[in-house]
Amino acid sequence: MNRTARVAALRPRYQDDLARGTARFFRPRRTDCPWCGSARLAVRLRTPDLLQHKPGHFVLERCRDCRHTFQNPQLTDEGLEFYYRDFYDGLGEENLATLFGTHERAYRLRAGAVTPHADPGSWLDVGTGHGHFCAAARALLPRTVFDGLDLGAGVASAQERGWIRRGYRGGFVALAGELAGRYDVVSMFHYLEHSADPGRELAAAHRALRPGGHLLIEVPDPRCAFGRLLGRWWLPWLQPQHLHLIPAANLRRRLTDLGFTVITEEHAEPHDPVDLLTAGWLAVNRLAPRRDEPWHPAPPGRARRMLRGAVLAAGIPVLTAGWLLDRLLAPLAHRVGLSNAYRLLVRREDG
């Protein structure tokens, strides 16, 4: 079935969802910070969905005391299902699989963050997606057995391909009891910001690790200057998917409270030099007429399709300039506050 037919087949379900309104997709707005409990909140960002262009508007607020940034009001489970649908799986699977498949060097660098400190026999990758990290890391760690955990169907594909020994499909918090004490390493790469309750996810990681085991976390850095300079066009805001963006100091303190010792903190190496390129793409794609998607009431006509092609073509110089500037700035990113991600390696000390 080609994409046009797949979109047509999915449209009735989406239109039924939208006919019932989007209010049920949101929880009541919080009046306090979910990280520290402070009532001193300020709006940091208001934005529509700039990636899929599904209906809805989203707000990120920041705590004036601890600087934690969070989606408020936060999506309900039903809302998360609606906005994730056809992003990583379904219609979006092919594009995302191609994108993730181009990050092999980054995957090996992530695995290499552990090797000076441990020679793990077992490794659980939480939020593994389709298992691309595990497939790449096996070349660096041939004796390590990799398992993966994810809510999506990609984890089953990863197991079928042999990229992981076993795939767990479900929520990490719910499965933590089953996984208790099994792993030498647990990794969370750009996972924690998607979770509704990061504190419970960290506690689940502590439970899944053996004493002396390591937890490796990589997340977007909400203190990156690009977040202020680019506003809604900064990709790591990623609304509506990113529910919590945690400053490094907050995450260090929470991990220490759970019984972890911080081994390394990196800001330069995790930086992915794509901020200006992706900002340009989001802006150009926002200006262009929408492509055919099942959450739109009807497919676009020929004139709108042609106009979309023309706008995207006109945006090529903008994207090229963004790509070049990203690479020129990359060597200086950490020094001038432009690193868009950070990585923490911590060790579970208690028995």
From TrEMBL:
Provide a GO biological process annotation: methylation
- Which InterPro entries does its entry note? SAM-dependent_MTases_sf
Q: By its UniProt entry, which Gene3D superfamilies does this protein fall under?
A: Vaccinia Virus protein VP39
Q: Which Pfam families does the record cross-reference, listed alphabetically? A: Methyltransf_23
Which GO molecular function, any one, fits this protein according to its record? methyltransferase activity
Top-level taxonomic group: Bacteria
Q: Which keywords appear in this protein's UniProt record, sorted alphabetically?
A: Methyltransferase, Transferase
Q: What is the name attached to this protein's record?
A: Methyltransferase type 12
